[in-house]
């Protein structure tokens, strides 16, 4: 029996990883085609191995990608296909606007020996990866009616990649790319401030590239502070441990900082302990600026509705709050102001709310 969606209206998603949102069937197809050994040869078997049913640490979660990424990374055809199929997936979830993120370097880094006669194989550059992903997203947008933009990830453990990431953000601004991100293992001490990352984010500020940072998921409130003060982050990915520093949280709330919340992910990565009140409840109660996102649905064996069901059934979230947070997500998107306004108006109309021009006031 199909479960009734927790929120059966148009949604906005701002925090989801392309390499964590691949169809298992596609992984198996390219594993066979490229001669890559995978840990299972059926969809169910693959999901049981790479999927999570109980909490792990963030580093243990990150290892999951090593099981299946060799089937995709370095393959032109696969990279474009996963981008296209991602848009189809979001259309089925009722998403009308999504920002999907990925590391161009990780997708380019094939550990599989290329097959000389197959033109979809070979040494890929990060630049070519961004081009292929943008193509797939644009074709998906055309075919499925979902507006899609992308965010390029720097990786905490590879600061030497970051200057190239920001240059790719600049180059592909007219082809879906809207922002830069810093992802990876937050437990690497001081990684926010590695010179390569600082250089990239300084260049992003100078060049008008939008900025988000994974911070305060496994890391402390100090990591959030570094993201905001040193990297000039405009949004915070996760941000749960911001609440450990009341002064910082108060300041960010006053500045209308947007928190990209991923509820189901926070449980499975151990970022939230189930015997405590979830940070998203505090965000709701304080009418803070946040969104609800799926993060890595392949590994979490989830859809975006999993996250909505979790906070509706376990935390008492209402349809009115779902409307408010999605409008906040639209307002906090990295779209140009005119497109952002169009998106907000689309949601307000779908939600039965008056147009902004005639509204008495805008919800925060």
TrEMBL record:
Gene Ontology BP terms: adenosine catabolic process; hypoxanthine salvage; inosine biosynthetic process; negative regulation of adenosine receptor signaling pathway; nucleotide metabolic process; purine ribonucleoside monophosphate biosynthetic process; T cell activation
Catalyzed reactions per annotation: adenosine + H2O + H(+) = inosine + NH4(+); 2'-deoxyadenosine + H2O + H(+) = 2'-deoxyinosine + NH4(+); cordycepin + H2O + H(+) = 3'-deoxyinosine + NH4(+)
Top enzyme category: hydrolase
Localization of this protein: Cell junction; Cell membrane; Cytoplasmic vesicle lumen; Lysosome
Cofactor(s) in the UniProt record: Zn(2+)
Membrane topology value: Peripheral membrane protein
Keywords: Cell junction, Cell membrane, Cytoplasm, Cytoplasmic vesicle, Hydrolase, Lysosome, Membrane, Metal-binding, Nucleotide metabolism, Zinc
GO molecular function, one term: adenosine deaminase activity
E.C. number: 3.5.4.4
Keyword Cytoplasm annotated: yes
Domain of life according to the entry: Eukaryota
Name this protein carries in UniProt: Adenosine deaminase
Origin species: Molossus molossus (Pallas' mastiff bat)
